[in-house]
Write a structure and sequence with these properties.
By secondary structure, this protein is of the alpha+beta class. The chain has three helices and seven strands, in the order E-E-E-H-E-E-H-E-H-E. The termini are far apart.
Length: 137
């Protein structure tokens, strides 16, 4: 059963049993920036219901960010989330049709205040997909 929690400007969706597998030292998120909170809620709920992630959240505003959580060292989980992103057209494209090289962000990086220029991603989309073709590497 999926649990929904509203707290501190966020709406969380979690599979309570599976979310126990998330390790605070290894956990992080792929993010999607939205302009439709209803769609954001649907995406976050679907990702947890279908077992794509154990936990997700979105900001409780008309526009904001969705976070899809997994352990950073779980390659299969990365592929599952990225496949979900592809199926739902959640990765923006450049004017030439190339996928943006989005980043995975560890929770430790967020806790350490790494944003903007101070954020250096260890894991990026181009480690999984060809940005030109969208094909898996």
């Amino acid at each position: 059963m999926i649990k929904t929690i509203r707290q501190f400007g966020w709406v969380y969706y979690l599979d309570e049993e599976k979310s126990k597998s998330l390790d605070s030292d290894r956990c992080g998120k792929w993010m999607y920036f939205f302009s439709d909170v209803k769609r954001a809620a649907e995406l976050c709920m679907e990702a947890v219901e279908k077992g794509v992630v154990a936990e997700s959240k979105h900001s409780d505003e008309p526009e904001g960010v969705c976070c899809f959580y997994l352990n950073g060292d779980d390659q299969d989980a990365h592929k599952s989330v990225l496949q979900f992103f592809l199926e739902h057209d959640l990765i923006r494209k450049t004017k030439k049709g190339k996928l943006y090289n989005i980043s995975f962000k560890y929770d430790d990086q967020t806790r350490n205040g790494e944003y903007g220029d101070s954020f250096q991603a260890e894991i990026k989309l181009d480690q999984f997909l060809n940005l030109e073709t969208g094909e898996w590497i």
